[in-house]
Amino acid sequence: MCSFSNAWKLNREGMAACNEGDFEKAEDSLLEAIRLASCKSRKIHRATMFNNLSVIYQMSGRINDAVQAYSSAISYLNPEHKGQAALIARMKGKLESLKDIAA
């Protein structure tokens, strides 16, 4: 079942939990948000949620998971779209920094 409004609610709840240091709740909320958004959202919305998930992983010390989440976020963006191309560039920079840390 798709529920885009519930997906955004879970996204917000997940980031609030992350800010409070409850990374398990944050991860659970974001993964559920991504699942709910998978059929009715625009790709940019899914990219945003995967980007948020990567932040949660980074903050909880799960660098390899953060790398994978950033890669997923980038895969949903369109490099031909000017605004999205800028996001891709920023995310790739973060991705490369994380890969260096993980190495």
Summarize the topology.
Blueprint: H1 4-19, H2 23-37, H3 43-59, H4 63-75, H5 82-102
Helix pairs in contact: 1-2, 2-3, 3-4, 4-5
Describe the structure.
With 103 residues, the chain is mainly alpha-helical. Helix content is 80%, strand content 0%. It has 5 helices and no strands. The chain has helices at 4-19, 23-37, 43-59, 63-75, 82-102.
Structural class, from helix and strand content? mainly alpha
Order of helices and strands: HHHHH
Q: Give the C-alpha Rg.
A: 13 Å
Note poorly predicted spans.
none
Largest sheet: none
In short:
With 103 residues, the chain is an all-alpha fold.
Describe the structure using short key phrases.
0% strand; 103 residues; mainly alpha
